Amino acid sequence: MTDYGYIKVGAISPRVEVAAPQRNAEYILESIRAAQSAGVQVMVFPELCLSGYTCADLFGQALLLDACEAALEVIRSATEQSAALIALGLPVRANGRLFNCAVLLQGGRLLGAVPKRYLPNVREYYEKRWFTPGDAPDLESDGFVPLCGRQIPFGQLLFDLGSCRVGVELCEDLWVPNPPSAALALAGAELILNLSASDEEVAKNEYRRALIAQQSGRLRCGYAYAGAGVGESSTDLLFSGACFLAENGNILTENRRFEPEGSAIYQCLDVELLQAERRFGSFGDAMAAQPGGSGKTLRRVVCTPPPPLTAQAVTRRYAPQPFVPGSLLLRGERCREILEIQTAALCKRLRHTGQRQVILGLSGGLDSTLALLVANRAAQAMEWEPEQVLGITMPGFGTSAHTRENVDLLARCLGITLWEIDIRPACELHMQDIGHDPNEHDTTYENIQARERTQILMDLANQENALLLGTGDLSELALGWCTFNADHMSMYNLNGSVPKTLVRHVVEYILDDSDEATAQALRRVLETPVSPELLPPDADGEITQKTEALLGKYDVHDFYLYYFFRFGFAPEKLYFLAKQAFAEDFSPAQLKEWLRIFLARFFSQQFKRSCLPDGPKVGSVSLSPRGDWRMPSDAVAELWLRQVDGLE
To answer: According to a count of CB atoms within 10 Å of the terminal CB, is the N or C end of the chain lower?
Structure first.
C-alpha cells in the first residue's frame, strides 16, 4: 500500500455557541466523526472553538475555563481510538496567566499546547485585555503546562507525523510581517495549521484568500485555515466560518461561508510535491541561515504516523493540462504574456545582431505558425515592413495540399515575403548520391528531407543577412521528436519552452483578436493534424503520418513532462496522477504505454537537448542545457522503465 506522498487534511468550522464548552464539544465530535469517515488524517478547528472566540470578559471566569478543560477531556477520551491529529482552540491557564492556545491531540494523547504569539489589540480586537502573548519572555521555564491532569509541552512546537511535519499558528500570527509559520517551515514543517477567528468585512475574504495562498507559496507548504463561524456573537461583528486549504501558492479548496450548521472541507495535500519544491533553490539556504541552523532549536513532538492512504482514499484530482490555466481569463493573460516574452526576446536578439530580416520555414502547422506570428509582432515592434519577415515553404514528399494552402493564406494575411523551394529534386539527387532506395520510406528517407530544409534555411539566412528562427516546441524537445541537425537547429528558437498544449491556446488567443481573413487561416491551422509530413499522403492527398498516432497524445506527454520535471515524480506516481486526470479519455493501458514512450524517449534523446540554440524561457519548465535541465546524454532509463513495466 502506498499513499503516493499524500496526507488528507480537513479544515472544519463546526457549529458554535458562545460560552457553552460542553455543547461545543458535542459539535466538534460530530465533525470529527464525519471527517474520520472521509479518511481525514489531520484536522484543524477554529480559534477558541471550545469556548467561542467572542466570550470577551467571560474569559476571566474560572467556571468557563474549567468547563473548557472538561470539554477537552471529553474530546480526548472520545478520540482514544483515532489516529488523526486534531488541533482545537481553547483558553489555557499557565503560570497565573491566560493564553489563547491551540491544543493538539491524537489517539487519546494531549500532545502539546501552542500559544498565540501576536494578539491584535486595535479597533474591534481587544485580546490583550484577556490573554498573554505566546512569546512573553517569562513563560514557564520547563516548557510544560498542566492540562486535564497532565503536564503537556507548551510553546512553539513542531509535530512530527513521520512523513509530514506540522506547525501551528493562530489567526493574527499570519497577518504580521514575520509570521511564526516562516520559522516553522524553515524548521521542516510541510503543513501549517491556522486556528482563526477573523470577522467579516466587505472584500476582506479576498485579501484573506490571497494571504493564505501567498504564504503557502512562499513557504512551499500546505496551509489549512479554519475560521470561527456564524454561531459567534454578532453584537458588533459577524464571523463566517471561512475555511481554506492551500498548497504551494494555490488554493485547493474553500468552503461556502455563513453556514449556520457549520461546514468542513477535506483535501489531500501532496507532501512529496512540497518536499521536491524545497529540495532545490534557496529554500535550503534560508533553512541554514536560521539561528541554530534548520530550526534545530525548535521543540519537536513525535506523533504516531497515521496509516497510509489507500489509492481509493486519495480524492485529489488534477487538470489534464497543467500548463494551461483552467480559467479563460487567466488563460488569456498567460497567452498574452508568452507572446510578450517571445516578442521582446526576439527584438533584443535582432537589436544585438543588427540584422534587418528574419527567416523561418513554414509548414502550415501549429509551431511554425506561432513562430511566424511572433516574428510578425517583432517586426511591428521594430518598425519594420512586413516583407522583412521571410517565410520559406519547402514542399517535400509528404506535403499535403491542405498545409500548403495554410501557408499561402497566412502569408497573404500578414503581408510577409513568401518563397517556395521544392526540395524533392535535391532529396532525390542526395538519395542517389548515397545509394538510398527512394521507395524505402525509412528514417533516412524522412531525415534527408528535414536536413535539406535546414540547409536551405541556413544558407538563405546567410545570403539575406537574416536571423533564422527555430519553430520546434518544448514537447517535441522532451520527446526528441526532431531531426538532429535539422529542425532541431536554428539561430534562435522562439518556441523551445512552450509546450504543444499551450502552443494551440496561444494561436487561439491571437485568432480571437484577428481580422476575419487571418482568423480563418488560423482556424485551418488549428484543424490540421500534428505531422512532420515526411511520408507521402494517401491516395486522396490526406496526411498519413500523424504524430499522435505514433507517440501518443501530446496532452498526456505534456502532463508527464510537467510532473516529471517540476517535482521529480517517479513513474508509479505519474501513472497514478494520469489515471486521475484522464480517467474519462484514455484507458490505463494507453496511459502506461505512453508513459513508457515518454520516459524511453526522454532519456535516449537528451543528446539533442545538450546542444540547443538560444531561445527565451517562458514558463517554469524549460529544457535548455544552459539553464534548467542538465542531464548526461548517456544516462540509463532502466530504473524508470522497470517501474513502468511493473505498473498495473
So the answer is: C
How many angstroms separate the CA atoms of 645 and 420, rounded?
A: 47
Least confident interval from 120-134, 276-290, 627-641: 276-290
Residues 151 and 246 in one domain: yes
Asked if residue 127 and residue 61 are part of one domain, the reply reads yes
Per-residue pLDDT of 591-626, as tens digits, reads 999 999 999 999 999 999 999 999 999 999 999 999
pTM passes above 0.85: yes
The answer to whether 522 touches 411, Cβ cutoff 8 Å, is: no
Would you say how long the chain is, in residues?
A: 648
> In the chain, how many domains are there?
2
For 1-10, letters b (16+ CB in 10 Å) and e give eebbbbbbbb
Same-domain status, 341 and 245? no
Host H or E run for residue 564 = helix 554-567
Q: Between helices 443-464 and 424-434, what is the axis angle to 10°?
A: 120
Q: Are residues 184 and 284 in the same domain?
A: yes
Catalytic machinery residues: 47, 116, 171
**What does the DSSP assignment read for 258-271?**
--TT-EEEEEEEEH
Supply angle C-alpha 88, 34, 263, rounded to 5. 70
Residues paired with residue 232 on neighbouring β-strands, in sequence order: none
φ/ψ of residue 641, rounded to 5: -70, -35
Phi, psi of 39 (to 5 degrees): 80, 20
The domain that contains 635 carries what CATH number? 3.40.50.620
* Residue 54 structural domain: 6-313
The DSSP bridge partners found for residue 113 are: 103, 154
Residue-wise pLDDT tens digits, 427-471: 999 999 999 999 999 999 999 999 999 999 999 999 999 999 999
> Do 213 and 251 touch, CB atoms closer than 8 A?
yes
For residues 410 and 525, the answer to whether their CB atoms sit within 8 Å is yes
Res 290 pLDDT > 80:
no
pLDDT of residue 311: 81
